[in-house]
Request: fold
Amino acid sequence: MLNQEQNNTEIKYNHYGEKLFDANGNTILTDAERIDMIARLEDKYKEILDILRISTDDPNCTYTPRRIAKMYVNEIFGGRFSAPPDITFFPNRKKVDNLVISNGIQVMSICSHHWQPIAGTCTVGYIPNKSIIGISKISRIVEWFARRGQIQEELGEQIADYLENLIAPKALGVIISAKHYCMIARGVRGSEEDTIMTTSVMRGYMLDDINLRNEFVTLIGQKR
Reply:
């Protein structure tokens, strides 16, 4: 069953009779569904190699369709088909009312437009309300949303929405800086490998209080 991340209200189906959903959405696969998806993808990638006139007699490509199929289902698009990470909460006993920041979270995603990597880092900062979230769980949430077909702008919004629903922080900021290989690999004129795209999402006090926002940006700019 599609969860609340699904943006489109109209349900569409593929020719197998399976529900379709957005590239950056989520639905959980059973083990049987995962095995079946990999097998069908393997057949399609064999056809792609054939169209590209790549012989599977080449020892480097003999098992390439299988490798690609497993990689997309279990790794690159893993966040589309897996349950959300288990989250550990702690009570905000000391009534912490200052920024808690997790900096340098690795982002590895894939562009929905050209299926090329988006690679970079994410910073999440928040002021707790009643609950504090385990720091490793923030990284897992970022990875869960990143491991899908994405555009960077929506990735930040998804992470922010999810954290707001989980812990209702007083303030929240999500900043992502990443390279987009749809530019680098395709040789777009003027694009260089060190070109970085940065997006930010600010919620609560972080959106309304410019001094707090400046503090957040200053703190994440400090060398670790």
Q: What stands out?
A: The helical segments are 31-51, 64-76, 78-81, 135-146, 152-167, 181-184, 205-208, 210-221. The mean pLDDT is 93.
